[in-house]
Write a structure and sequence with these properties.
Shape: globular
Bound molecules: guanosine-5'-diphosphate
Number of strands: 20
Number of helices: 12
Radius of gyration: 22 Å
CATH topology of the largest domain: Adenylosuccinate Synthetase, Chain A, domain 1
Largest sheet: 10 strands, mixed
Oligomer: single chain
CATH superfamily of the largest domain: Adenylosuccinate Synthetase, subunit A, domain 1
Distance between the termini: 8 Å
């Protein structure tokens, strides 16, 4: 079978982790392709809760190989901690995890730069996770990054680090007024990383392509969401990589002809973390209620997520960017508690009705949502696993969403646990 991409279709945190874990039962490889440990995926199976920031969410299925592709930037300290944590909970990674030789490393100076730069922005802060992700991608583009492959020849790194730190420390101390990063300590870290991670570093792109050529099923694990895409999101309030379908190909070294399906994961409402325009944001009691019911607090930062109604203008835009073959709708159960639910079908922008997602963040910020209102449902949906058992109002809400998005809702998630899932139609090609 071919590759299936599972992409965040909104502003991130859509529940991709749960869905990837659910689908990974049928996968040979689960492959992360973008972002870093600014992502946080929650997987709950058999009552046990796991938060993953770098390791792919297929790791709980013993038949899967889990890989981190070249499009990811990986903080080795976080990766080692995650590997140790899973192993301490009885999940064996031997022969089941590979880090691409071409993955760029998040270095200690990236983290310091991220923190100092975000502080320096003051009220104009972007709301980054301060984990060094943006500066690591900047260095990748500037061709001054350190690759996982470099750890395999660790003594060669010293001289490069010396030159890199001369520049980065000048920025850290003279421009941003922070404390310098020690060359010795950074190099010592590299040695430690080489020792711990060396056995996992390998040719991910070749392994993924070979599996696909042999008929393997590969899940491409997205991080963040389409509306945070560096090129297509609400710039500058975006992430530093491409969580959209093009990023999946580039971030793993596979071509589009391998693609068997593109799954867009949407929450039944909207959330956004950090700064940036959010037309359907609810700053009232309804927003509070959704946040509390859904425990909308970030997996990575613990920050309260901003909450709003479903935005079909943004959803259509996301669908056109990614060409979803299936919609996955999560957290339907959270909407059980309302007399009516709303969908934003257009914006009012400077007195005009618009149905396109504006490129300018200031224009998006001026957009006022135009809503249609749908009846709520009073039957609880948690744990429902058959489409026909869902309340008819919930079904008609979903029918309207799929009409607006332009792709069918094939998977419905009715709770955080693996089994709380409705598979309305197979998302895998026959
Ligand atoms: P991801 O980064 O897209 O994987 O999303 P997060 O893990 O950051 O956030 C999703 C949260 O919602 C996690 O705590 C999940 O356990 C939880 N979750 C996922 N699907 C559902 C669902 O259908 N209903 C409820 N109530 N919670 C869900």
């Amino acid at each position: 079978m071919p590759a299936y991409a599972v992409l965040g279709a909104q502003w991130g945190d859509e529940g991709k982790g749960k869905i990837i874990d659910f689908l990974a039962r049928d996968a040979d490889i689960v492959a992360r392709f973008s972002g870093g440990n600014n992502a946080g995926h929650t997987v709950i199976n058999s009552g046990e809760k796991f938060s993953l920031h770098l390791l792919p969410c297929g790791i709980f299925w013993p038949q899967t190989l889990n890989v981190i592709g070249n499009g990811v930037v990986a903080d080795p300290d976080v990766l080692i901690k995650e590997i140790d944590h899973l192993q301490s909970r009885g999940i064996d990674l031997t022969g089941r995890f590979m880090l691409s030789e071409r993955t760029h490393l998040v270095m200690p100076y990236h983290i310091r730069l991220d923190q100092l730069m975000e502080d320096a922005r003051g009220t104009g802060a972007l709301g980054t996770t301060r984990r060094g992700i943006g500066p690591a991608y900047s260095d990748k583009a500037a061709r001054t990054g350190i690759l996982a492959a470099d750890l395999l020849d660790v003594d060669e790194i010293f001289q490069r680090l010396e030159a890199i730190l001369a520049y980065q420390n000048a920025v850290i101390t003279k421009v941003l007024g922070g404390p310098a990063i020690s060359l010795k300590r950074t190099f010592d870290k590299c040695r430690k990383w080489a020792e711990k991670l060396g056995e996992f570093i390998g040719p991910v792109d070749t392994v993924v392509r070979e599996s696909l050529d042999e008929g393997g099923t590969v899940l491409l694990e997205g991080a963040q969401g389409a509306l945070l895409d560096l090129d297509h999101g609400s710039y500058p309030y975006v992430t530093s990589s491409n969580p959209t379908i093009g990023g999946a190909c580039v971030g793993l070294g596979i071509h589009p002809r391998y693609m068997g399906g593109i799954l867009g994961v949407f929450k039944a409402y909207s959330t956004r973390v950090g700064a940036g325009p959010f037309p359907t944001e609810l700053l009232d009691d309804t927003g509070e209620t959704i946040r509390d019911l859904a425990k909308e607090f970030g997996t990575t930062t613990g920050r309260p997520r901003r909450v709003g109604w479903f935005d079909a203008v943004a959803a259509r835009y996301s669908a056109r960017l990614n060409g979803y073959t299936s919609v996955v709708l999560t957290k339907l159960d959270i909407l059980d508690h309302f007399d009516t639910v709303k969908i934003c079908t257009a914006y009012e922008l400077d007195g005009e009705v618009v149905s396109e997602f504006p490129a300018s963040d200031t224009a998006l910020d001026r957009c006022k949502p135009i809503y249609e209102e749908h009846p709520g449902w009073d039957k609880p949906t948690p744990s429902i696993t058959r489409r026909d058992d869902l309340p008819k109002e919930a079904l008609s809400y979903m029918d309207r969403l799929q009409e607006l998005i332009g792709s069918s809702v094939d998977i419905i998630s009715t709770g955080p646990e693996r089994h709380e899932t409705v598979m309305a139609r197979s998302v895998f090609s026959p």
